[in-house]
């Protein structure tokens, strides 16, 4: 969860602001390249693993409802971030890829305009959701093994 939260955070606070300073052709080309190379086993292991491992943790904690509730909350929050990625960010990435080669593109400014603002905004939401999910998991971890209060 921390890896994915950090990835989305890095895009939000450095990669996208840095690319915002680029001209339209460079912006489109770099984002196409990033979207191409990020599809690798390491990313998919982290992206899918956060969902899978949080779900497994919730199942394993079925005998500890006090801790399990925090893990279920993290699972729900990350599930929303996962869904946003699949429903919003990936289609935007696909549209950008379908726009073609930026070197021969007639109007890279319009391609960028359709992509940049919605992608950046939804990435900030994903970063916030993943960070919240990480915080919820951290809370579950602090409760795990701590005896429940009596009385």
UniProtKB/TrEMBL annotation:
Membrane-spanning ranges: 38-59, 71-92, 119-141
Keyword Transmembrane carried by entry: yes
Name of the protein described by the UniProt record: DUF1772 domain-containing protein
Entry keyword set: Membrane, Transmembrane, Transmembrane helix
Organism annotation: Streptomyces dioscori
Stored InterPro entries: Anthrone_oxy
């Amino acid at each position: 969860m921390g890896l994915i939260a950090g990835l989305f955070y890095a895009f939000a606070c450095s990669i996208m602001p840095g690319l915002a300073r680029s001209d339209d052709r460079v912006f489109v080309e770099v984002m196409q390249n990033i979207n191409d190379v990020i599809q690798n086993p390491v990313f998919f292991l982290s992206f899918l693993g956060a969902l899978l491992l949080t779900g497994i943790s919730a199942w394993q904690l079925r005998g500890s409802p006090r801790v399990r509730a925090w893990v279920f909350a993290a699972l729900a929050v990350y599930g929303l971030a996962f869904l946003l990625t699949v429903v919003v960010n990936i289609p935007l990435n696909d549209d950008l890829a379908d726009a073609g080669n930026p070197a021969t593109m007639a109007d890279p400014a319009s391609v960028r305009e359709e992509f940049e603002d919605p992608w950046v905004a939804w990435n900030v939401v994903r970063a916030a959701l993943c960070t919240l999910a990480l915080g919820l998991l951290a809370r579950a971890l602090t409760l795990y093994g701590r005896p429940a209060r009596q009385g």
